[in-house]
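Researcher: First entry.
Model:
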Amino acid sequence: MQQGDYEELVSERGRNDALWAILRRMAHEIIHYQQWLEDKEMDEKEAENGSEELLDSYYEFL
């Protein structure tokens, strides 16, 4: 996913999946921000797992 590709995502996946893809990317970057704050290595696996946990928590909140 690249910046500004929302319309393309909507046409490929539909509105809800496009929005979820954007939320997933944001959650991934939030985990990287937490890694940075904690002076940790930028770990992609941790960011993927952490972003899924964050989205799961958000989904349960809805």
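Researcher: Second entry.
Model:
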Amino acid sequence: MSDLVPADTTEDVRTRGAGVSRQVAVLPVGSFEQHGPYLPLATDTLVACAVAREIAGAYPVHLLPPVTISCSHEHAAWPGTVSISSVTLHAVVRDIAASLRRSGVDALVVVNGHGGNYVLGNVVQESSARGERMALFPAPEDWEAARERAGVVASLLTDMHAGEIETSILLHAHPEMLRPGYETSDFVADDRRHLLTLGMSGYTDSGVIGRPSLGSAEKGKELLASLADSFGAYFSLLTSAE
């Protein structure tokens, strides 16, 4: 459970906070949505937690438990998918940030594991405009750098859902969660211009868009290591005096 829920005590948080000039909290935001027949509904939460845990291993941050249900409306055609509205997710993140500030943690990084959580960009943008310290991680550029370092073959466009990247991260971080089938489930649909109107079911019958057969634990390890390196710029930005 420590992979998903931090084991810190209040004294751990107090001690860590005493050693830094500005406290930074890291909030994983996942989803609960279909990921084909071989990855669990909680895949995006597992990925977000794996990234956040890698960050917490490299930087003195306050690791929070994940938000496990978010905006997965494009996956509604598949059983098991659960969503909340973008308005609700916006409010949840804002409330968490406000609570953190009251306890002396005035910087928040939202680690997003689900591409459909478009509203998180608005949350960060609006909070920053109010003078609050908040960031959204990883950016597409961070994923691209990680993809290149790990030797991921599929482009970020092709590797849209339950593909090489997500399969690789779970093979590394949670291999027990995968079921047979990813080796033979590749499906490519690069032109998805009507995704918001049609949903995922307009482009895939299996729920997969990507090339999971190319996934490996080694790639998953390198993906996470690269993202942890990329986080350094975010940490410096949020903890700077200016």
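Model: Note on the second entry: The CA atoms of residues 31 and 219 lie 23 Å apart.
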